[in-house]
Q: What sequence folds into this?
């Protein structure tokens, strides 16, 4: 039998999950997936995720992998089988074979997170699970000017939680865009080679503070240089954040 792993692409509404990573006694995306796959396989199946999204954070394109040998269903049938058997807040959108040496986390070229702000005068009830309502007026151009100062390779200690486990706080940001839409939503898309715990949410909190005049538009370089979380803005709520895209090589050996 050919040895390979199975890679699933997932979308999920993170509202009712305590994050992606398995936690005893708590409902998590990894826990629900492993329960489902173990039921299909008749034996314990563990999955590896590309990103450990926090409690309340959503995903449009999370990637997970598992050992194909443990799950007897042909992979071409797995996507169809997932419909109606997984909880309704998790959807499998793609299934593919990957080599045994493939790793959904370490083989990722870059990731994009999207944060959604609701800038309407009153909260949009249809967006409340996925967008953070900002009641005060903000200046999008000021936010973009500040965001541009985050591009490149920096030590992002000031933008991660003090509980972050990664010793190396250096990351590269390739692109940040702050685009206001016609329906009073703003999309803040952040693309980088990796992210620290709460990094995107702290970036967004700082950009919002700059946009509404509570922080100076040129504050970013000093915040980066300080390597002190207290220098940056507040942490934006989890529910506005979605893991939007993970880029992989189109081919691998």
A:
């Amino acid at each position: 039998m050919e040895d390979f792993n199975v890679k699933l692409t997932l979308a999920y509404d993170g509202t009712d999950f305590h994050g992606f990573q398995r936690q005893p006694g708590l409902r998590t995306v990894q826990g629900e997936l492993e329960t489902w796959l173990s039921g299909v396989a008749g034996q314990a199946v563990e999955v590896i995720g590309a990103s450990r999204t926090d409690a309340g954070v959503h995903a449009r394109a999370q990637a997970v992998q598992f050992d194909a040998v443990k799950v007897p269903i042909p992979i071409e049938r797995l996507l169809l089988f997932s419909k109606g058997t997984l909880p309704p807040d998790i959807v499998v959108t793609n299934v593919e074979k990957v080599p045994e040496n493939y790793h959904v986390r370490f083989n990722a070229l870059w990731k994009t997170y999207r944060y959604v702000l609701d800038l309407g005068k009153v909260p949009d009830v249809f967006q409340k699970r996925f967008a953070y309502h900002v009641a005060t007026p903000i200046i999008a151009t000021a936010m973009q000017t500040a965001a541009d100062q985050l591009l490149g390779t920096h030590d992002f200690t000031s933008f991660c939680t003090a509980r972050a486990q990664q010793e190396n706080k250096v990351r590269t940001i390739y692109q940040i865009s702050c685009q206001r839409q016609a329906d009073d939503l703003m999309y803040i898309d952040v693309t980088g080679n990796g992210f620290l715990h709460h990094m995107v949410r702290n970036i967004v909190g700082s950009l919002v503070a700059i946009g509404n005049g509570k922080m100076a538009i040129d504050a970013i370089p000093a915040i980066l240089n300080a390597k002190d979380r207290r220098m940056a803005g507040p942490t934006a709520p989890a529910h506005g954040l979605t893991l939007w895209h993970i880029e992989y090589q189109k081919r691998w050996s």
Helices lie at 29-41, 75-82, 140-148, 199-211, 220-226. Strands lie at 5-12, 48-49, 58-67, 90-98, 108-118, 132-133, 152-155, 170-180, 185-192, 241-248. The CA atoms of residues 153 and 172 lie 4 Å apart. The radius of gyration is 19 Å.
